[in-house]
Batch of 2 targets.
Target 1
Amino acid sequence: METSKQHIEPAAGRLGVLTVGLGAVASTVIAGVELIRRGLAEPVGSLTQMGTIRLGKRTEDRVPLIRDFVPLAGIDQLVFGAWDPIADTAYEAAVKCGVLDRFVHIEPIAAKLKEVEPMPAVFDQNYVRRLEGLNVKSKGGKRELAEALRQDIRDFKAAHSCDRMVVIWCASTEIFLEPGPAHQDLAAFEAAIDANDPSIPPSMLYAYAALKERVPFINGAPNLTADVPAMVELAHEAGVPIAGKDFKSGQTLMKTVLAPMLKARMLGLRGWYSTNILGNRDGEVLDDPDSFRTKEQTKLGVLDYILQPDLYPKLYSDVYHKVRINYYPPLGDSKEGWDNIDIFGWLGYPMQIKVDFLCRDSILAAPLALDLVLFTDLAQRAGLTGVQEWLSFYFKSPQHAPSVYPEHDLFIQQTKLKNTLRWLMGEEQITHLGIEYYQD
Amino acid sequence: METSKQHIEPAAGRLGVLTVGLGAVASTVIAGVELIRRGLAEPVGSLTQMGTIRLGKRTEDRVPLIRDFVPLAGIDQLVFGAWDPIADTAYEAAVKCGVLDRFVHIEPIAAKLKEVEPMPAVFDQNYVRRLEGLNVKSKGGKRELAEALRQDIRDFKAAHSCDRMVVIWCASTEIFLEPGPAHQDLAAFEAAIDANDPSIPPSMLYAYAALKERVPFINGAPNLTADVPAMVELAHEAGVPIAGKDFKSGQTLMKTVLAPMLKARMLGLRGWYSTNILGNRDGEVLDDPDSFRTKEQTKLGVLDYILQPDLYPKLYSDVYHKVRINYYPPLGDSKEGWDNIDIFGWLGYPMQIKVDFLCRDSILAAPLALDLVLFTDLAQRAGLTGVQEWLSFYFKSPQHAPSVYPEHDLFIQQTKLKNTLRWLMGEEQITHLGIEYYQD
Amino acid sequence: METSKQHIEPAAGRLGVLTVGLGAVASTVIAGVELIRRGLAEPVGSLTQMGTIRLGKRTEDRVPLIRDFVPLAGIDQLVFGAWDPIADTAYEAAVKCGVLDRFVHIEPIAAKLKEVEPMPAVFDQNYVRRLEGLNVKSKGGKRELAEALRQDIRDFKAAHSCDRMVVIWCASTEIFLEPGPAHQDLAAFEAAIDANDPSIPPSMLYAYAALKERVPFINGAPNLTADVPAMVELAHEAGVPIAGKDFKSGQTLMKTVLAPMLKARMLGLRGWYSTNILGNRDGEVLDDPDSFRTKEQTKLGVLDYILQPDLYPKLYSDVYHKVRINYYPPLGDSKEGWDNIDIFGWLGYPMQIKVDFLCRDSILAAPLALDLVLFTDLAQRAGLTGVQEWLSFYFKSPQHAPSVYPEHDLFIQQTKLKNTLRWLMGEEQITHLGIEYYQD
Amino acid sequence: METSKQHIEPAAGRLGVLTVGLGAVASTVIAGVELIRRGLAEPVGSLTQMGTIRLGKRTEDRVPLIRDFVPLAGIDQLVFGAWDPIADTAYEAAVKCGVLDRFVHIEPIAAKLKEVEPMPAVFDQNYVRRLEGLNVKSKGGKRELAEALRQDIRDFKAAHSCDRMVVIWCASTEIFLEPGPAHQDLAAFEAAIDANDPSIPPSMLYAYAALKERVPFINGAPNLTADVPAMVELAHEAGVPIAGKDFKSGQTLMKTVLAPMLKARMLGLRGWYSTNILGNRDGEVLDDPDSFRTKEQTKLGVLDYILQPDLYPKLYSDVYHKVRINYYPPLGDSKEGWDNIDIFGWLGYPMQIKVDFLCRDSILAAPLALDLVLFTDLAQRAGLTGVQEWLSFYFKSPQHAPSVYPEHDLFIQQTKLKNTLRWLMGEEQITHLGIEYYQD
């Protein structure tokens, strides 16, 4: 493997960030970035802001911050905008969703948050049944809607003097859609737009609009959206990166840590029962079985890929895996995931692991969104187009090349991400061999 | 890094395995190996027996079993012996400790288990206060005891026509000892033996005897034992590997998986409260505060090394870490570890993870003991002497070179182990970069 | 309240017990009674066998065993029979359901268990969809089936020289049925039988047959069955007691203990999320949404009655209560109930209780079945007919007089049961006032 | 039992409440009462404020509020004062202990809270080692200190025009003291005060001073204090009630609910492991083994009394009960109790219950303190002197007459309390017999 540095354009000027959805996640990102800028809070959870990277050998003691190592946009360079079917500003959204402490983290930056007013959204209740909103684009055909979104992107860029843009989906989960003929190549996709084909949900119009404007697109929800051949084709054609899908924030994060442990230790698995209770808008949307089905797909696949039952039939070929999500309003934006894991060890003896994760949805998701914005922008400046597999670290259902299986193991994902940064900057890959410390 | 294969002697003939202690762990290993030989049970939990290793690129699909890839001794080649201060055979030990189902897993191999009778032990209640036994070597000085152990090893090897031997400590935890002057070099150590110095506990006599007989020594408990300069010096001089210390089997295994997750995601940590309840002989011994202190050291260090508070002061410099072990007879050989983990995320918001691990001590430890025996024997045949850092994967407190810090992260340990096997066999290191799938 | 003793017929002769269903619960009862008779096990969980009752004042120290206080049939007097659509004997049922240790608790009494062969059942898959069986009565109309059951009861009584009989439902949950016109009085009910009305499920035919034969009927499942006016009318007419419904064995038992604690302490409740995983035949049947609906009714009602939101609107009028049951085969007959309870205290501050109950379905249910058989037989001999509210202690959804609300609080139920026994025997009621110890 | 009403003096005028200790509990009570007065919060958790009592038969539907049924002082009549070795006002204490939301529940009543300034305390670090304070009475002998406390009570009563007073211990746990000769009668006790005997800790001086002033004394901590014959003698002589000891607020509350369930159902118990983590001043004090020992006594006794191993040797004579408390600062005033309960059922089969109680120490204790103040004042007006067993409901280690055992079962305690109120007011005792609904 050559270790020469790749060419990367500098991160000069302003980076416009448009969030699709201005709810709990987006308002938590926007408020957080402002608080961090002012030194009122720390960007905990963000690899780009707090993470380091080890370079060279353990004894060299070279461990810079990632943001000092690769040329990322600084958080001072970010400018936020949004679309949402509900007309609340970022201030109103933050107050209503109840994630942040009002007195400590909202009121001090109220003026700034009130500036972020959502543009009218492309929204269709056929795809997200439990929501409704009035701040929507007056109905035209899908082509008109896509063009309107492209115009929004251009207008925002001009109005805020941005040098570059990123679009990120932070909205609710759409109903389950199978990839169909309209998604197989760009020509079919364009035709389907023109025909108002129902296989083109709003999320695809956002992704299409972004890519056509040569703007990277990130998908934080489990919708198909950009995870179809037509979109990958467009991304390569336009020379922009895409990243997705579904932020890996709570129970699945835990799962992609514990399943690798079982496999590392060759401990067998008989069953894994996961139940979630959550009380926010996301929970309400997922109470619709069709939206849940979309989510269930990304949640269930994880174990199969990590555990490789084909390689280990005696350990993993008969796993009973069940995932439940329940809307439970008393929790608000808090989210609780309870897992019961039935494992077996030496000679087949059964044991159990039970995990209760009392987490906060938007607090876990916000730093992922920030990192993805900054890394995707880096990818574009480094000329990396199409699917960014090295960002699998952030996703429940990482997009990947058709020739390979996805990597779900959090630690392989982390190694992949960091070795990609090393490769970009011409540093040696880390293998953890370290035999040299024990040989003459 | 060159990728030429290392020279490794073939694994011909019989491999004698002497366990120090013939209690729950040792009898579970011995019974298990016999059951597996006869096809009556599976070696679940054993990387050497069930694990695979990926070679080359993801698309090559080369994933052999580890035991087909590196030349390990087969389980048919193993012959077991033991020392124990209690005269029970492996059969009686297995029945009493209650780990295995008597009808399914003990009676069918009773004759074989009865053959394993423990040799009289070197035992001193000053170092393990809650135990007593009559099957002990008649008191002489420490030098005489060491020589008697050497003679046991030679006798066993001859009596069972073994080609090679391994000694593994599967006994109770000794009281806490600080490394002292007698441990700093081999000459001082030898002098201390001759002087019956109290800084030389029984476990060091076992390790010394093994190494002097050019037999690898493995330490499954947290005692100092071979983790002192004098022993490393002797290991190099004698050309044998040593591996230790303290099997990483339950709560610490979990900790070295969850802490890396927190660090990977830059989630902060305020406190980690771990409590254990266990009801076997190990629990009884650890109820002695001096034995517990030894254990506490190996259990507490883990977080500091993984979390690197110097690199991440805002996330990990103020962690309140508490570990408790309680003897609780109702559990028998079962062991339950309950962890409450107080973390914080974006802008400092608190969250909690609670883990309840209902495990079985000996069931988790047995495959580790088997793997360590086979890998240590491999190391010796490959000419790797002294500390085997690549076996850190198996230990709570891995021995390491003085020039580097220990690796506690289970996934770094796994990468290190597998890349060491690749290096031994002349295969390429795996880096998970995989950028080639996304470039033209 | 007068304290004169009630007249009770002696418990002479043999008591025949017919279980509807010969699965996990019934076989565990039958095996257990035999083991206890032989001194091979203890009747843990049975109030009639192990319970005591305090009489008079605390200082009198009169605390006899309940079975020495009231004239119950002894377990030596019991003779078991059963109906089941599957032809397995009690021996085969016990082996298959995996509740009891085969070597310790099944094989020693195998001959006895094999004697219990199920009579052909009245079974209809329209009412229990996930089961099927061949050991069923050849189809006739509902009247013929009812008559066949009556004949079975008479035949069994004669064949085994029984003096008295009891019929107890230990079978699967039928689909949800609303009480309808056919259930309102006995005449309508008889007409519906003759008309093969679908509102008469098999369980009602069993109850009808028992009552017509002047045999008490107990319902361990949540089916409507005897909980309709027509059946209560028949019970009074025939002079027999009825008791039901749905054994209170696991999560609901816990709920009827914790909810009274909240109310006793005036702690508020915002939400209660209960999830169950279980892997036996019961779990499989409840995976059918229509059977689950029947169960859900008995599980949900509990909180409302205990917490009295009308009396305490500020504490309990806005409770989000959700109950989930999931079929999860890895658990077998074990059953795990996880509850998350969101409470609030002083000034409204939130707190949480989480309970994980790792229980065994049939082990919990078996002693309830035994107690109910013996107490119902006692009731009949004491001339108590119709609904036995004092047995509410045993049920998730206790039948009760139309004029009063049901009591769900376990401790009120226990007081009611014990004070009823005191009343039957002419002893004073216990009030726990005890002011006399503190006054001159 | 006669049902004539007892004579009770009216609750006219102001009731002075002096808390010993002005920390988390006391400041939470004082702030709460003020907020409730102003309609800014609800007295959740308080039986006197929110509880009802059922009178007569179920069908009568007579269920008044307790405060409408018995003549209690109203919260508008309360005036608070305190002693504390730290000079913080109730405002400063509330801010520092972090129990209440500052903006919602502290600032709006800041002026009122600042009025409560602690009087100098009688404090001696020999009895509470982990605390220190400067706001203490200048050292005199124990007699002088007791007289100073009496003077404080008289002064406060006069200064605030109180008609009646109550003193309640809300301070830290003193070290463990065995009852000795000095505690056996009042004469010996008086002599020990005069002799500065070390068997008289500060808490006894407070109790002594209160009783001498004919003021009821309540003990919220596990110290011996008023739980000795000398104090009971004094209480009777002075004609005042005493109530104690140790608020039953968290894990023990749960234990006195779950253990009665086990006994009600005749489920056996093998072991109960309780661990607590808490981060407030109380946790810090209990980190001293001598203070913990005092607490441990009140926590351990509970099971024995409830389970009656003498009556049920097969179920409860071999219980392994362990209680651990760990100071764990990340929790602050939150307190988490984790219980693992090993039970066994039918034929001896093992099952487990695990409970995790995420509670808040002062939020649970505050309403108990309020209720005890009001009920103790009622007791005095009703002429009930000495130990108030009917208030056992509130205590971990309820004081009781020497002739009887204490009642720990929460539901017996509740019945006792409510039947005592009924007896006071001349209403019939409730027995839950209810046989009348089922007889003609």
Target 2
Amino acid sequence: MNPPPWTVSHWFNTQAPVTLEGLRGRAVLAVAFQMLCPGCVSQGLPQAQRARATFREDDLVIVGLHTVFEHHEAQGSAAALEAFLHEYRVTFPVGIDAQENGSPVTMRAYGMRGTPTTLLYDRAGQLRLHQFGHVEDMAFGASIVAAMSSEAPLSADGNAITGVCGPDGCE
Amino acid sequence: MNPPPWTVSHWFNTQAPVTLEGLRGRAVLAVAFQMLCPGCVSQGLPQAQRARATFREDDLVIVGLHTVFEHHEAQGSAAALEAFLHEYRVTFPVGIDAQENGSPVTMRAYGMRGTPTTLLYDRAGQLRLHQFGHVEDMAFGASIVAAMSSEAPLSADGNAITGVCGPDGCE
Amino acid sequence: MNPPPWTVSHWFNTQAPVTLEGLRGRAVLAVAFQMLCPGCVSQGLPQAQRARATFREDDLVIVGLHTVFEHHEAQGSAAALEAFLHEYRVTFPVGIDAQENGSPVTMRAYGMRGTPTTLLYDRAGQLRLHQFGHVEDMAFGASIVAAMSSEAPLSADGNAITGVCGPDGCE
Amino acid sequence: MNPPPWTVSHWFNTQAPVTLEGLRGRAVLAVAFQMLCPGCVSQGLPQAQRARATFREDDLVIVGLHTVFEHHEAQGSAAALEAFLHEYRVTFPVGIDAQENGSPVTMRAYGMRGTPTTLLYDRAGQLRLHQFGHVEDMAFGASIVAAMSSEAPLSADGNAITGVCGPDGCE
């Protein structure tokens, strides 16, 4: 069974929309974040940037998903996100998760618990890792290679970090 | 000569406006920041929070000044700042530096080079430290005690950090 | 061509000597270190311990090699190393690289430039990574999985760290 | 009442023995450590080195005391300590706490609980801070200035760190 598609209302850092189907054949890392989520800013996004510096784009595609489920007024506009991406030098494609009835569609489709959430797909498009919170770098590098070779994923238990945001606020 | 007053259009985390004059007799730390300035989020504000946890409020007053000089659309609203302060658990008083002709009044009055900028006043209300960028914690603790005792400040050279924001953007 | 064997005069944390031949079929990580090398203490050994916590022993064997090439009087005795391993809670097998004419045999056989040096062997016993200095965790996790699956190693360039020790002293 | 003198069997990095009496008039920081104590290597000594870089020698004297209470064979010799000080670039004076009946005299005289322990004396030679474990940098800088001005010390509670060594071993 294929994982849900990404439902995106606006893309940054890419000329054409990015779809899971269009990336078949390559491993894909998607990081769901919110620009005012402390754990996303201090850990989730920097880790995605380290991954970008570590692996070749031919081997691993990296995208961000801005899954706003709180503080819509502050972080819900494209202008706010654009300023954020500029200041934090995020250069990989980032899509705004489409809002429907006040909640983000993709986040809901995946049953994400909050932000940051890491999604790792193998070359066949299957979801190999769905992790809320932090993944240690070494285990993460291991999981990425496993996804690139379409082998069974290593278990990479995420550890609690402060600053993750869930339905009951950030902690 | 007294340092310039703070010109604030809106205060958070305080019931009454905070003025330098009203704080005479106590050492005062003011941290000028922008909510989308990486160096403010990773260093300037956490350091102010460490200072809050280290010194008694009777000895050291701590305030933030939101000196927005770029990305006004993204970070210029009170709602955006309020969400930021909530997520980052900033509990000391924070004032929005009043905008005049598109630039922040207090920032200009002090000739600040960018954010984060640290201002440290002694008990007599005199400015003892005006620092753009990072101050090491140990030198900072030393400067604060010097300000609390109204003695000559130690020289505390700030070190370059990545993520500080100036007129030419963030670096 | 097989890599050189380890020439060890004394083993800790193992009842029987450990040999590369005896480990054929499993990926192997060997960390060459000196107990008074700052970069080994702050980075090389903690990384090996993180690897031990990340991968199963069935998948990855980890050993330390104490390759003393300086300060023999201070760090050359088994008693000194034993105290060090106890205090730093190193629980994987560690062998003392045998001295010959005042220099460590295994270190010379591999042409190591100093400490820490990371050696990573695949399941077939071939050397896949020989790295002086630091390897970033994410790239390291990737290399380990590549070694476990006997695929081509990712290039994992080590970055300069302070505290590495070479023939001209530590820097 | 004056604090106990330092009883030292051998000094490094100084041509003449250093005594508390001879330092009257200047604030003094003494760091008690063991070369194989992880918390000393990762925190206590680096903090003393940061203090050395932050304060002038005229204002603050810094010395180390090698208080060996375990692993005498491994860390009890002057040669071992000399190699350690060289590799870790400790340039301030360090004295070996004299052994008597297998335990260090100065450590016992002060009733130290283990290593690292920080002793801070004011200009009058009085002990203002006696801290086992870690002191946060900001509070430490504050305490140092208080000692330099012979005022009442701020309370600077040390926080538990891993790697401190006490009578029951390191933890």
